[in-house]
Design a protein that fits this description.
Rossmann fold; six-stranded mixed beta sheet; 12 helices; about 45% helix; binds adenosine-5'-triphosphate; binds magnesium ion
Length: about 325
Amino acid sequence: MNTVLQTKGLCKTYIVNKPQNNVLKNIDLTITEGEMVAVMGPSGSGKSTLLYCVSGMDRVTAGEVIFNGKETAKLSDKELARLRLDEMGFIFQQMYMMKNLSVLDNIILPVVKSKKNTESRKQTEERGRSLMRRLGIDDVGANDINKVSGGQLQRACICRSMINSPKMIFADEPTGALNRSSSDEVMNELLSLNRDGTTVLCMTHDPKVAAKCSRILYIVDGGIMGEKKMGHFGGGDKELCDRERELNNWLMEQGAGNTCNVAADVALLIENQGKALKKEYLFSSVWGSDSDSEPQTLHVHINRLRQKLGDDPKNAKRLLTVWGVGYKFV
Ligand SMILES: Nc1ncnc2c1ncn2[C@@H]1O[C@H](COP(=O)(O)OP(=O)(O)OP(=O)(O)O)[C@@H](O)[C@H]1O
Ligand SMILES: [Mg+2]
């Protein structure tokens, strides 16, 4: 398989105030054609920075980034912009749509801007509409971007990221602003693009999103701490459930700031606040399944995690928010 993206000793340092902030430290990463890679890690660990650096939106401080055989540091800003336009697609959490353009016009903007474009406007619009049909949003093409739902707008972003048939799609928290069902729809589209051969790199906090990816990297404090190969997701609830559980166990082994903290902190919240928690709900939201779970299994997990993490309740709420894990007290 061909390598699409490679980094060698990638470092990124921000100097805003002293001391300088070494955000990415010596990242060696290789992504081959057809992979769907998720990057997970605590807030502030450097996921977005990594995405900006490997996609040429930001310059690296040291090291190399090679995209599709080209070393990006050697390209001028103009050449980099062209590379991004023609060979990369982007999906962000904040969707960066142009406010004065309709949904359809936003989607076809990368074509209008591309120097490679030889199509007529009509042909481009037809392609835009056909992508929108594929993603089930063809009825909102003429709408203002503030007259559609979050899920529709996110799907419009996917259309826009696809319109130039990119080699690779870069997604930063693509489902971060969405409810579960919109999030599933967006992920299913990304999966289907990936099955058609597009390579995907996706930064996410959500284990349910990462469980659909073929490989997961765990980044802490600007370095890759761990890597898990899951293979391509074939589809189906049972497989997804198994993958989520496997991933959550792996995340637990990674230690800092992952789902295990959520479980431990939820347990502390229950005890500290004296509220009862519907255990099955917690189990399904934290561990991905409720089908074969016994409440005591959860307690075994939580007790083990609490021993490992210590009883420090002060970050509980923040972690729950950061990890966006659904939970409710009843
Ligand atoms: N433009 C910038 N200038 C200075 N520091 C920055 C800049 N962008 C990010 N940082 C710092 O780099 C570190 C990593 O930030 P980054 O946004 O990559 O984290 P992240 O893993 O994407 O976090 P989150 O999960 O919250 O999105 C943080 O300490 C952040 O404050
Ligand atoms: Mg980020």
